[in-house]
Write a structure and sequence with these properties.
By secondary structure, the chain is an alpha/beta fold. It is built from 17 helices and twelve strands. The strands form three sheets. Strands 1, 2, 3, 6, 11 and 12 form a six-stranded mixed sheet that branches. The protein has a four-stranded mixed sheet with strand order 8-9-7-10. The chain has a two-stranded antiparallel ribbon with strand order 4-5. Strand 4 and strand 5 form a beta hairpin. The longest helix has 20 residues.
């Protein structure tokens, strides 16, 4: 789970994962940098290593600092953890000013841009625990065939069910939806009065999962051809239309909510599609009880999105070896499980994630979903295209999915051609 800078609580998680939120200014800022990266120039042992993180709050900041201090005490070093007020902006400014931090959170949606510009040290393939990570997370942070930076944790999307409303509708565990037909059926039973059966944000980071469940994808396996306008992707969007037209689906904006977790907390939605960050609603809605299930399968099988973060190290940094040693410590099973206890993240190694699922059975479905999870489309230049796609999706209800995907196809292929050119 990537933790970005503080946002208004009601919209924090939606902002985090909504719409593949890569600021388009990153590419502009990086383009102005000298080639080859440029991390901290000093290897003075008296100068602390700087770690720039996007923190969810004091618990995360303090846990990262404590872990870093433990490593430092064992390595005759010191480490300073900086909680960014705007991670994306501060990181791009650091690289533009040739003053990047020694180690930093690098999200999946920024990785290709930074790696493509030569700003990341490809250290991960040399880590002692390089084979411990989930293969799909390794793929996410592999550039030009090289495993570049180690995934720090991850999250998947699941179906979050209000337990009280589920029971009130006479539903049991046997009714948990396994496919699209049963999802619509239970959503219908849960739609009563002021409560709608299902809610999620109308954006690629949610709607794209339905496209994948229909057997679609946006880019061919070789990364050269856009496949956005496929019949499968059309089917995924048409299913969303069907749910909405039947009255069992409403989007957060239609429920006076900043994100679907808020709609769940208010009792305006009985089921939502979100990730492990759903636990954040406990602060505002402590009495809401819920359970987590895997997303149902479409005609193409099960699929969900995985979102992740890696530990980035600047290319050619004088402190790269120290930073890599610190990453190896931070991504150890014991340390990742300590982070899980402190601020709820799911470990990026398969063995630690298995322990996490046993320790926190309420989140087991998120972990189990890793076996069929895929990363959203991610290549240099894709963020701008997805931002436009999200704008197009606003017209999905009452609109033409084929037309929306045709526009995406054109824009995505142009971006791919430029990226591969």
């Amino acid at each position: 789970m990537i933790r970005h800078s503080a946002v208004k609580k009601s919209g924090r998680r939606a902002a985090r994962w909504g719409g593949v939120a890569l600021a388009t200014g990153i590419a502009v800022a990086l383009a102005g940098c000298a080639g080859g990266g440029g991390g901290s120039a000093s290897s003075d042992p008296s100068k602390p290593l700087q770690i720039l993180i996007g923190s969810s709050g004091d618990a995360e900041t303090q846990a990262v600092q404590a872990a870093a201090d433990t490593w430092a005490s064992q390595n005759n070093a010191s480490v300073e953890v900086i909680a960014a007020s705007d991670l994306t902006q501060q990181l791009s400014q650091g690289f533009a000013g040739d003053d990047a931090p020694d180690l930093f959170y690098m999200s999946w949606d920024q990785f290709q841009t930074y790696a493509g510009n030569g700003y990341l040290q490809p250290y991960a393939a040399d880590l002692a625990n390089k084979d411990a990570f989930y293969p799909n997370l390794v793929d996410t942070f592999t550039y030009d065939g090289t495993f570049t930076c180690a995934p720090k944790d991850f999250s998947t999307l699941g179906l979050i069910i209000n337990s009280d409303k589920w029971s009130a509708a006479g539903l049991t565990d046997a009714d948990i939806p396994k496919d699209w037909a049963s999802l619509q059926s239970v959503a219908q039973k849960l739609t009563t009065g002021d409560t709608v059966g299902l809610s999620f944000g109308l954006e690629y980071a949610r709607a794209g999962a339905f496209m994948n469940q229909a057997g679609g994808e946006l880019v061919s396996a070789d990364g050269k051809t856009a496949t956005a306008d496929s019949a499968q992707n059309v089917a995924g969007l048409e299913y969303i239309q069907q749910l909405h037209d039947s009255g069992v689906l409403r989007f957060p904006t239609e429920l006076d909510s900043g994100w679907s977790g808020e709609a769940l907390g208010k009792g305006k939605a009985a089921m939502v599609i979100e990730g492990p960050w759903i636990k954040g609603i406990a602060g505002d809605y402590p009495d809401v009880k819920y359970q987590v299930a895997e997303l149902p399968a479409g005609s193409g099988g099960q699929s969900t999105f995985s979102f992740t973060n890696c530990w980035g190290v600047p290319a050619n940094s004088a402190t790269a070896d120290q930073a890599a040693s610190l990453v190896e410590f931070l991504t150890s099973d014991d340390q990742q499980l300590a982070f899980s206890k402190a601020f709820g993240v799911i470990p990026s190694t398969e063995s630690a994630a298995a322990t996490y699922a046993t320790t926190y059975p309420e989140n087991k479905a998120f972990v189990d979903s890793a076996q069929f999870a895929v990363s959203p489309v991610n290549f240099a230049g894709s963020a701008t295209v997805i931002t436009d796609f999200n704008a197009q999706l606003e017209g999905l209800i009452g609109g033409d999915p084929k037309s929306i995907l045709s526009t995406l196809q054109t824009n995505l292929q142009a971006a791919l051609d430029e990226a591969n050119g």
